[in-house]
Amino acid sequence: MNCVFITPDKMDGKRISYDYVVQQYEIQRLLQRRPLITLIDICKEITSGIRVKKEYYTDKNGYKIIAPGDIRNEVIYINELKVVQPEVVREKDIINNGDILITASGKSGQVIYVNEVLEGCVVTSDIIKITLRDRDKGIRLYKFLKSSIGQMLLNSIKIGILNKIFVEDVENLLIPEDFDTYQEDCSDDSTVYAEAEKLYRSAENIFYRVFDYKGEKKNLKHFYVTEYLDSHRLDPEYYSNFYTELYRVIHKNFDDVKWEELGELVEIKKADKPEISKNQKVKYFLLADIDPNFSIIKETHEDFYGNLSNRMRYIVRRGEIVTAKGGSATGTKGHATALITEKFDGLVTTDALYNLVPRRINPYYLLFLFKQPIILNQVNMFTKGTLYKLIQRNDFEKIKIPRLESSLEEQIVDKMMNYLSVLQNKF
Questions:
Q1: Whole-prediction pTM value?
Q2: Fewest CB atoms less than 10 Å from the CB: which of 39, 144, 152, 175?
């Protein structure tokens, strides 16, 4: 057993914790004989953001706000951010290109570099914003804080069962004067995600130039039904869909948008059990292996086919699309859809997904649509069940697909192809 003797002068009476003491000892060992500086010495300011109240949120114009829950695996999904009223925002709450963000509670210690995509957003009080005097050093400090020694430093100032990090502790953090030398174990993911986000946004800009539906402003609480009664549907939420902006849009003719049903554009493969020997090793992925935010298959597995669930029925091919047909996230922003690229050709997957073979529509354009409210809200409209939401095949085929001029669809396809190419290099 390895033992370390720590003298009383190395102890902190306010933090009687084995992990804290050992971390401090290791940090001192790693940083010995290196000149140190206090983080605040190289900063213009270190602050936390807005203490948000429910009434601050708005559906109108305002500032997009970042909370710790919006950061997943150190990625911010900007399209999902809520908006707060401009009147409650102070100048110090606004983040700018080159700032560094640190989550201060929950999964604290996550580090985000603010690029031009995030610039102009604001942060909550559970995120600490670091603004350097020399913004050109921002990316180097970001890489240092993400490195093993940087994470050890942040772990050492977490307090309590909530792992809270306080602004004053970040200000007093001792870091090496030459902190930019600690970059070897940290890759810069922020530029990858920023590039992908730009491409995706540009695809949306093309689409919404001619299409004016981004979701419902509010849900109806009271309505009177006479025309749409269905003895198989007794749930009020289903009938509310007939009085929405969505229903009006998909039943309206536009000069530059034509509607076609999904069943006319794709073939939905039957979930027949494939002829694979139970002793054959196969590669496969599950619904949970699809990242719903990026629409990327993030993980695959390998096992003997006989060991897999009886639901593993599809053999997917390049150019096909898989999309969730059931689960609590079906028809929401968390709805999982992915395009099968060459890397995943021939893999086996579950019948918890629909396996689509595009016939009269480009798969990249269809993938783009399955991330938009016009499709997701239709999926949600057709789902049945309360404990487990499910969209049945005959309803799924009736989803209305907006067709644009071929030149516009081709532009979106080009953006989405580049978008996936950037992300696949990362994943």
A1: 0.68
A2: 152
